[in-house]
Amino acid sequence: MSDPTAPSEPAAILARLAELQAGDLPVHGGRTLAYVYDSGLPEVDRVAREAVAAFAGSNGLDPTAFPSLLTMENELVGLTADLLDAPGTVVGSVTSGGTESVLLAVQAARDARSDVVRPRMVLPDTAHAAFHKAAHYFGVEARLVPVGDDYRADPAAMAAAVDEAPDQTVLVAVSAPSYAHGVVDPVAEVAALAAARGVRCHVDACIGGWVLPYAARLGRAVPAWTFAVDGVTSISVDLHKYAYAPKGASVLLHRTPALRRAQYFASAAWPGYTMLNSTMQSTRSGGPLAGAWAAVRAIGDAGYERLTRDVLHAVDAIVAGVGALDGVHVVVAPDSTLVALATDASCDPFTVCDEMAARGWHVQPQLSHAGRPATIHLSVSAATLAHVDELLEALAASVAAAQDAGPVAVDPGVAEVVAALDPAALGDDDFDGLLAAAGLAGGEGLALPDRMAPVNALLDLAAPELREAVLVAFLDRLQRPAR
């Protein structure tokens, strides 16, 4: 083994990076249907990567020191505002991603209400986990409301939840669309009930924000969700999703500067410079911002319309193709670019995911939740259109293989033990045993097995709190120093 403290030649460093990256999922080619979003435009990717590199050392901490970053940020915010029917009063910030945008929306709603002792927010139970992270970080209670049979937020139930503690509710939130099922919540109805009660309404459009406006332009039926809806006070839109920018760029918009003011942090309570931040980060590389600016400029308005047409055609073809298959079905007709699939009793979704991976396709398993069964998640990209026939062939073969294998069976005794476990009472040795039982640890330490279906089937039996605890234990053991 080479000495890690010795300097390496540039060629050796780049070769090692390529070697490490060879084990990752592919980010281009349209076959990774989670985590990455592929325009299928190599020239755009090249320009964006060069922009990231050119501004990697620039620091967004002080916009007066790097005015180029401020210019690019204001231009991106302006383009996003125009796309989302924003009035002239709208302001915004570029953040590192959808989670940071959601965190800031919650933090601003909380801090704007200094009179509230026990702040709470009302969410459909399909809202992104980033809201739960915000609740954990900021001490804001998340009041979850079950969605209807259509997987969309229930406005009447959300109104009732707000009315349980109207003086403590600082925010209601909806999705456009929800990540797990790909449908747009009834934003107009929820925003109206929020406005009537003097509560902010945030629209999480991190997935759909750069697609739905073009979908409407193409003549698709899109429920109202933008700032054209009275009562919508903030919207988050990820540029590194369907604006096809490099990772690390999202936009959070507020209807007025007054609504954004509580988002800012300033401190002069120390002998150094007065800290002033518009986002969670202080020092932040200008690279992702420049990469997003370059991608948006390179693609342009007509380009995004074309990419939206392509990705929606891909979604239509996938939905139609799935309809011709036995054993698997679309959970709910998608409103945008996300598709959720479920299986019947002849097989299980976890085995289908494994079989798809064996055929070169990465799809994402989603565990059961609130009485609804486990599903298979697809985040479709424009680059997927050229490969839809291959995807459907792989899916048909994967479902057939899963049916031949039969659903994953968990030993009844193990299932009984898992159901009775209290994660709060477990120690490190207990978690080590659980990781081994789940197939996440073996004689040579931690490792993911070649097939994840048995692991997911076992996790699917566990209560959400136990799932969280086991996976935290796994991540804790993964993230140990390389020495």
Structure report:
Helix content is 42%, strand content 13%. The chain is of the alpha/beta class. The protein has three domains: 51-295, 3-Layer(aba) Sandwich (Aspartate Aminotransferase, domain 2), CATH 3.40.640; 301-405, Alpha-Beta Complex (Aspartate Aminotransferase, domain 1), CATH 3.90.1150.10; 412-478, no CATH class. The strands form four sheets. Strands 1-7-6-5-4-2-3 form a seven-stranded mixed beta sheet, with helices on both faces. Strands 10-11-13-12 form a four-stranded antiparallel beta sheet, with helices on one face. A two-stranded antiparallel ribbon has the order 8-9. A hairpin with a 7-residue loop joins strand 10 (328-330) and strand 11. The longest helix has 37 residues, at 287-323. The chain is globular and about 60 Å long. 45% of the residues are buried.
What global shape is seen?
globular
CATH superfamily of the largest domain: Type I PLP-dependent aspartate aminotransferase-like (Major domain)
Based on the structure, what is the oligomeric state of the protein chains?
A: single chain
With helices defined by DSSP (H or I, 4 residues minimum), what is the helix count? Answer: 16
- Poorly predicted regions are none
The Rg value, from CA coordinates, equals 23 Å
Distance between the termini: 11 Å
Number of DSSP E strands: 15
**β-sheet strand percentage:** 5-15%
CATH class of the largest domain: Alpha Beta
Main β-sheet, spatial strand arrangement? 1-7-6-5-4-2-3
CATH architectural designation of the largest domain: 3-Layer(aba) Sandwich
Helix content: 40-55%
Helix-strand makeup class: alpha/beta
User: What name does CATH use for the topology of the largest domain?
Assistant: Aspartate Aminotransferase, domain 2
What would the average pLDDT be, to the nearest integer?
95
